[in-house]
Amino acid sequence: xxxxxxxxxxxxxxxxxxxxxxxxxxxxxxxxxxxxxxxxxxxxxxxxxxxxxxxxxxxxxxxxxxxxxxxxxxxxxxxxxxxxxxxxxxxxxxxxxxxxxxxxxxxxxxxxxxxxxxxxxxxxxxxxxxxxxxxxxxxxxxxxxxxxxxxxxxxxxxxxxxxxxxxxxxxxxxxxxxxxxxxxxxxxxxxxxxxxxxxxxxxxxxx
Length: 207
Description:
This protein is α+β, with helices and mostly antiparallel strands. 50% of the residues lie in helices and 14% in strands. It has 9 helices and 5 strands. The protein has helices at 15-18, 30-40, 90-99, 105-114, 118-131, 138-147, 153-164, 172-181, 185-206; strands at residues 20-22, 43-48, 56-61, 68-74, 79-85.
């Protein structure tokens, strides 16, 4: 009996609607994900080697076709994370959450509480931006808004970029304010770029 070829992830559903992101804590890397996929019986679909601006991506599909699990190493943004999509993602999500040490709302709050310098704050903001691919979260929105008023321009740039990655429409007024009023030209330019990208993304998801 031959094994069935894994379905292409595009056959599993609408990724913009169903994509769920999970960010592991330090100590979880590509090797741990590959081992977990093997133990779980997930079928390797493909691996895409990254480049300067292209992240590495490994993709597995559950045998029943219920979910595709992507491991993404986004070096440009400094975050490695999992993305799960498909018509029945919960079994795969249960495995990931039980087997891996992942950030959740409580541990993210602790991460921000522990930040003592700009470098740590920017790392926390990047993780927050990846974590919040889903419904609007007023507490996390408040963290983005607070960081956009940081005295360090680079922190403000990271904050607005990470906030825009959530695709929340509520972020638009914050970006508009920075575009018009931030004292640093590079921050204003970045806000304009991310605002335009956010609007295009949201228009596409509504069509």
